[in-house]
Specification:
Layout: E1 4-9, E2 21-28, H1 31-37, H2 41-44, E3 48-51, E4 57-58, E5 63-70, E6 75-80, E7 83-89, H3 94-103, H4 121-125, E8 128-129, E9 132-133, E10 138-145, E11 151-155, H5 156-159, E12 176-186, H6 196-204, H7 212-226, E13 234-238, E14 244-246, H8 247-256, E15 262-264, E16 269-272, H9 274-280, E17 287-288, E18 291-294, E19 297-303, H10 309-327, E20 336-337
Parallel strand pairs: 2-5, 3-5, 4-20
Antiparallel strand pairs: 1-2, 6-7, 7-12, 8-9, 10-11, 10-12, 13-19, 14-16, 15-16, 17-18, 18-19
Helix pairs in contact: 6-7
């Protein structure tokens, strides 16, 4: 198999830019490649890591198993009344797909502009940003079952979505590899502009009747202003999940911290801004050795040059303990630790 190699550096396959080595590395460009790869029974039993853009993980050690890099390409769509089912191969860059949708006038993805990573990771992580969650536009995904070598289509219900979670991170973790994803979008947009930063930026630009292109550009501008470019400084975007707590616990916190940043999160639930919690503990822009938090957004941990994964992990642990001591809130890492 020409696409299978041994002892491959993963430094350029993770946006943190930390050094790690894969025992085996396979670049997948088609579903046929997957079928051929896992026809080798000895590969089926190795520890497995599926990579797309490497934008949501932190390597703390070498990977003594099989890394599967999904690098298949393709975008197509079908019309369904006034809706559109847009499908993309797992290896497509997520923001390229968003731009494709916006350029074609397909509404629903625009608030998810500039999220790093690839299409295949979108249902695994159940990505979301600026008032829109992936599960609101998700139609289905096609996936390869490693054990049987068969392909299966998963509906939205079968994916078991919850906040930054899916069945692929829980019960079916390591059992399937997503090969393509379909999204249900609209030709007549229902814009989501309630997020404060979006409203402020639209107002600054004097846009009163925004298009989906306007929303995409505004969201991109907001992200650029807050988040570092991984090609310039290593990072994995938001390192922690925004914690969701009961409304009773929120009221207790608000009585002590009246300015606490929060959002509704369903019946009797409140979502807190993890970045605000971290910043209040004095971590914003802090540098420790070769790692630290980003100067414009405390939620983002960065590699200032030669940080190891273990250094970044230890730094994140200090932040977690600090927030726990001050707010009695346990932050969860959104980034996958390898």
């Amino acid at each position: 198999m020409s696409f299978l190699r041994e002892h491959v550096s993963l430094k350029n396959h993770n946006t943190f830019g930390v050094q790690a080595v894969a025992r085996w590395f396979a670049e997948i460009q088609s579903e046929a490649d997957l079928t051929e790869l896992f026809a080798d029974s000895k590969l089926q039993h190795l520890p497995l890591l599926v990579l797309g853009g490497g934008s949501n993980m932190l390597f703390t050690k070498n990977f003594d198993g099989l890394v599967v890099w999904m690098n298949n390409k393709g975008i197509w769509y079908d019309l369904d009344g006034d809706e559109v089912v847009l499908t993309a191969a797992a290896g497509e860059v997520w923001n390229d797909l968003v731009n494709y949708a916006v350029d074609h006038g397909f509404a629903g993805m625009e608030n998810l502009s500039l999220i790093p990573g690839t299409v295949g990771a979108s249902p695994v992580q159940n990505i979301g940003a600026y008032g829109v969650e992936l599960d609101t536009i998700f139609e289905s995904c096609r996936a390869f079952e490693i054990k049987t070598g068969q392909f299966r289509t998963f509906t939205k219900t079968e994916c078991g979505f919850s906040y930054r979670e899916s069945i692929f991170k829980q019960e079916l973790k390591g059992q399937y590899i997503i090969t393509q994803v379909s999204y249900r979008l609209k030709e007549h947009p229902e814009l989501h502009t309630s997020y404060g930063a979006i409203r402020d930026e639209l107002s600054r630009r004097q846009i009163t009747q925004p298009s989906i292109k306007d929303i995409s550009e505004v969201v991109s501008a907001i992200r650029v202003s807050k988040l570092p470019d991984p090609s310039t400084i290593g990072n994995a975007g938001s390192f922690f999940k925004n914690p969701i707590i009961s409304i009773d616990k929120f009221r207790q916190l608000q009585s002590v911290f009246p300015d606490i940043v929060h959002y509704p999160a369903g019946p009797d639930k409140i979502k807190l801004a993890a970045g605000w919690l971290i910043e209040q503990c004095g971590w914003k822009g802090k540098v420790k050795g070769q790692t630290g938090t980003w100067k414009n957004q405390a939620l983002v941990l960065v590699n200032h040059g030669y940080a190891t994964g273990n250094e970044v992990f230890a730094f994140s642990e200090e932040i977690i303990q600090s927030v726990l001591e001050r707010f009695q809130i346990s932050l969860e890492r959104e980034v996958n630790i390898i």
